[in-house]
UniProtKB/TrEMBL annotation:
<protein>
    <submittedName>
        <fullName>Flavin-dependent monooxygenase, oxygenase subunit HsaA</fullName>
        <ecNumber>1.14.14.12</ecNumber>
    </submittedName>
</protein>
<keyword id="KW-0503">Monooxygenase</keyword>
<keyword id="KW-0560">Oxidoreductase</keyword>
Length: 362
C-alpha cells in the first residue's frame, strides 16, 4: 500500500485519499514495530526510495529540493491519511534546515546518506565540558519525534553559557521510550539522553552565523516560517480527516435524528459543510502565501515572515476551534474511546500543542 499512498500524497489524488483513509490508518498501525512507533523495514525502504524525509534537502545532499508549498501539501495529504505519518514527515524534513550550517564534511556524511532522518530537540540542556578536540556532554532532551528510526540526532547544549547546536550519533544516545501523549501515539516522540558523550568540535554548528551558500537556499529562509510551513499542514490534514469522520458519524445518525431531532441533523450537517469549505479556502490562502514567500526568498527578497506566520496561525486556530466545536454536537457516542473521530481529535490536540502555534503576547 505504500507505493499507492505515496503517489497519492504527491499527486494530490483526493479521490484515493478519501477512499483509502481509514484503511491506511489500519495499515500504518500494522507497519509499526512498537506500540509508540517504529517504522518497519518495508516502510522505511519506501520512504528512502521516495526521499520522503528529504523533501527540503538540497540536491548536494541527495535531496528532492522541492518548492516549499509543494512539499507542504504532501505533508498535509499524509496527515489526512494518518496524523502520525504527517507528523513524522513534518518533523523529519525539518532537519534539512541545519545542513548548510554544519561543517561541510560532517554535513555530507550525515545528510547525504540514503537513510538520513533527523530527530532531536531545540531546548538547551546542560553545560558542555571542554575535552580533547571537542566537548563532553551529559544531558537529556524531550520530545524527539521519530527517534526510533533516526539516523542521527540534533540537540542544543550550553558552551560558555551560550546555546550551541550539535549532532549526536545514534550510537551515543539512549532512547528512553517515554512518549505518552493522548494523540500521535506512533510518532516515537521519546526523550533521548547521553552520558559523558565525547562530541568533536566539528559536530557543533552555530545558527547565529551565516550558513554556506547553496542553490537551494533553505538554510537562509526564515526558520519560523519554515516551521510553520511544515506544521500548519499537519493541523490542516488532521482536521480535514476529522470532519470526514464527523460526516460519516452523521450518516449513522441520519434516520434517528431526522425523525426525532431534525433541527439537530440540519444544524450539524450545515456546520460540517461550512467548515469543510472554509478550511479549503483558508488552506488555499496559506499555500499561496507560502509560495509567494518562497519565491520572494529565491529572488533574495523579503520572505514575508509575518504574513506567512499569521496565515498559518489563523488556519491552525480555525481548525482547532471548529474541531472542538463539532465534537459536543455529536453527543456521547462521539467520545467513546473506540469512536473513529476520537483518533483524529486526539491527534489534533497533540499536534496543536506545538509551540509554533503559541503566542503569549498580552
Amino acid at each position: 500500500m505504500w507505493k499507492a499512498a505515496i503517489e497519492a500524497i504527491q499527486q494530490n489524488n483526493t479521490e484515493w485519499l478519501h477512499k483509502n483513509r481509514l484503511i491506511f490508518q489500519q495499515f500504518f498501525f500494522q507497519q509499526n514495530l512498537k506500540p509508540q512507533g517504529q517504522l518497519s523495514k518495508e516502510a522505511l525502504t519506501h520512504h528512502y526510495q521516495g526521499k520522503l524525509f528529504k523533501l527540503f534537502l538540497a540536491e548536494d545532499y541527495q535531496g528532492l529540493a522541492l518548492d516549499l508549498h509543494q512539499g507542504a501539501k504532501w505533508i498535509e495529504n499524509a496527515s489526512f491519511l494518518d496524523g502520525n505519518w504527517g507528523w513524522l514527515l513534518g518533523i523529519g524534513v525539518g532537519g534539512a534546515y541545519f545542513a548548510d550550517y554544519c561543517d561541510e564534511e560532517i554535513a555530507q556524511q550525515y545528510f547525504s546518506a540514503e537513510n538520513a532522518i533527523v530527530a532531536g530537540s531545540g531546548k538547551p540542556c546542560d553545560q558542555a565540558k571542554p575535552a580533547e578536540n571537542g566537548f563532553e556532554i551529559t544531558g537529556n532532551w524531550k520530545y524527539c519525534s521519530g527517534s526510533e528510526q533516526a539516523s542521527f540526532f540534533t540537540a542544543v547544549t550550553l558552551v560558555d553559557k551560550k546555546p550551541q547546536a550539535f549532532i549526536i550519533p545514534t550510537s551515543l544516545a539512549k532512547i528512553k521510550q517515554d512518549w505518552n501523549a493522548i494523540g500521535l501515539p506512533l510518532t516515537c516522540s521519546h526523550s533521548i539522553e547521553v552520558e559523558k558523550a565525547l562530541i568533536p568540535k566539528n559536530y557543533f554548528f552555530d545558527l547565529s552565523q551565516p550558513p554556506r551558500k547553496n542553490n537551494y537556499p533553505i538554510s537562509t529562509y526564515s526558520f519560523l516560517g519554515f516551521a510553520m510551513a511544515c506544521f500548519a499542514p499537519v493541523i490542516t490534514g488532521i482536521t480535514k480527516s476529522l470532519f470526514h469522520d464527523a460526516e460519516n458519524f452523521l450518516t449513522t445518525k441520519k434516520d434517528v435524528w431526522q425523525t426525532y431531532q431534525p433541527e439537530r441533523f440540519q444544524l450539524i450537517s450545515k456546520k460540517i459543510e461550512k467548515v469543510k469549505i472554509e478550511i479549503e479556502k483558508r488552506s488555499d490562502t496559506f499555500y499561496q502565501v507560502v509560495e509567494k514567500s518562497w519565491n520572494s526568498h529565491l529572488q533574495q527578497k523579503n520572505t514575508l515572515q509575518d504574513e506567512l506566520m499569521n496565515s498559518g496561525q489563523n488556519l491552525a486556530d480555525y481548525c482547532y476551534a471548529e474541531a472542538c466545536a463539532i465534537i459536543p454536537l455529536l453527543g456521547m457516542d462521539a467520545i467513546e474511546k473506540t469512536a473513529e473521530i476520537q483518533k483524529q481529535f486526539q491527534d489534533l490536540q497533540t499536534a496543536y500543542q506545538h509551540m509554533i502555534f503559541r503566542s503569549f503576547n498580552l
